[in-house]
Design goal:
- Chains A, B: Its EC number is 2.4.2.3.
- Two copies of one chain form a homodimer.
- Chain A has helices at about 30-35, 45-60, 95-115, 170-180, 215-225, 235-245, 270-290; strands at about 20, 25, 40-45, 80-85, 90, 120-130, 135-145, 150-155, 160-165, 185-195, 230-235, 250-260.
- Chain A is of the alpha/beta class and about 300 residues long.
- In chain A, strand 1 (about 20) and strand 2 form a beta hairpin.
- Chain A is globular.
- At the A-B interface, helix 3, strand 8 and helix 5 of A face helix 3, strand 8 and helix 5 of B.
Chain lengths: ~300, ~300
């Protein structure tokens, strides 16, 4: 049994643990009863997308009834949304490293308090692609920073500590195999660049501030491509670092909404973007079904 | 007339500008008609708090009717929520620097496209206090980083650029004067530390990961206090930096939910926390009323 590895000796001394941003606490909620059977956790930025995912996976696993409404477990707050069906937990994390980091601290403690074991966490997200047809799905080999290094800089008490952003190789391969089996859209394994900013940090020309030109932008994106980067998003590095430290198997599966070598604006129609965003859900849904022997 | 200063020569060449995370665009929405009369923009992390604020300010300005429901202008997305009444716009920004940065890029472009002038932007938020009674309100003098320097590091195309985090001194003084006039809660002017993380980055002992002890934590917080820091939050530095560059008058007004010298967990009752969170709203609501000659 692979339990959560909690890297914090202080927690054992606390009588009660309030997970403030989930509006849950060990003094008010029975975590083992509520969450003890969780095996798969899927996280993504948008609360409505994570609600759509729980509805989808419930039907796929034969655990839902059509039109069933899944209650938001974090209804006491609007910071994050959380849904559960059977062994699957679906949690939103907002946008950016700090936002997903708060969520992961509380999620990892939740799984620990619930005595969960053999957990797999997968981020299903959106991203900008580099050199890929829009709608392609990228399974992350390594999450790299804005200088293409596979590392995450965590500031602790004012000092910077470097953490590894390794992800589970075997899990990435299994997900790639699943994509081949469902054979519905282009999927690649590649590096994912994780930035602190959507506009200047990703070389966009269409933000409120832009002090470089198109040539410099394209040079940067091509350097990223040459180093193995296939997509850019804003959460994978701290996600990989924290899952690593907690001994949890983790993967990042993001669809690319555009090809950044061809533009900056996300201008596809609403319907096309909705269909793109379902692709990581379909891939991870199939993976979960297969893992449970239901394929 | 003080118009928005747009630091991006590329935008003039674009036929259309899609503000993706607002689900608004210049090709589909008439920005001057929708937003041209805006003079005050209030931003805060939580969408429901920003909705509560628009209801409150509408009543204060005599522009609302009891029980009136204000539509979410960004209803086409769940990334941010936006509400408007008269000259006041209320926008949520999620948690952390990257999340507020995306919102501010699109907000500044929105105000520019709408040809707004003489804008004041105020962040009304929550924070952890240092050496203050919980419920105290801090008006930010300077936003400082985790080493107590008044600067923001922006990564652009992989290189780090330092930006100033100055806020409007006169506006901070006017807000302090408003607090004296309403005389309902303790308010101070002080420095605000802006971190990339809520747990390790703020010296908490109750995250999923903690590799330091209580002494080291308290030493760090006391150093922060000695340098003039009175509260800690996660958005003020990029907020100050971007407002600075865009020539917009800006202030940060945050309530402190706890005194970090006495603990890490936010354990006050729901009702107490709700009342605390109304304090920046009351202060800024009074300031807006006074600015409009309605006090």
């Amino acid at each position: 049994e692979n339990f959560i590895h909690l890297c914090n000796p202080h927690l054992e001394k606390m009588k009660e643990d309030i997970l403030y941003h989930f509006a849950l606490g060990t003094g008010t909620h029975d975590f083992p009863a509520l969450f003890g059977d969780v095996k798969f956790v899927c996280v993504g930025g948008s609360p409505s997308r994570m609600k759509a995912f729980i509805t989808y996976i419930a039907e796929e696993l034969g655990l839902g009834s059509p039109g069933c409404d899944y209650p938001n477990i974090c209804a006491g707050t609007d910071r994050y949304a959380m849904y559960k069906v059977g062994p699957v937990l679906s949690v939103s994390h907002g946008m950016g490293i700090p936002s997903i980091s708060i969520m992961l601290h509380e999620l990892i403690k939740l799984l620990y308090h619930a005595k969960c074991s053999n957990i797999t966490i997968i981020r299903i997200g959106t991203s900008g692609g580099i050199g890929l047809e829009p709608g392609s799905v990228v399974i992350t080999r390594q999450s790299v920073d804005a200088t293409f290094k596979p590392q995450f800089e965590q500031v602790i008490l004012g000092k910077t500590v470097i953490r590894s952003t390794n992800l589970d190789e075997q899990l990435a391969k299994e997900l790639m195999q699943c994509s081949k089996e469902i054979n519905q859209f282009n999927t690649v394994i590649g590096n994912t660049m994780c930035t602190l900013d959507f506009y200047e940090g990703q070389g966009r020309l269409d933000g409120a501030i832009c002090l470089y030109n198109e040539e410099e932008k394209l040079q940067y994106l091509k350097e990223a491509y040459d180093s193995g980067v296939r997509n850019i998003e804003m959460e994978s590095s701290v996600f990989a670092a924290m899952c690593n430290l907690s001994g949890v198997k983790a993967a990042v599966v993001c669809v690319t909404l555009l090809n950044r070598l061809e533009g900056d604006q996300i201008s596809s129609s609403h319907d096309v973007l909705v269909e793109y965003q379902q692709r990581p859900q379909k891939l991870v849904g199939y993976f979960i079904k297969k893992s449970l022997g239901k394929v």
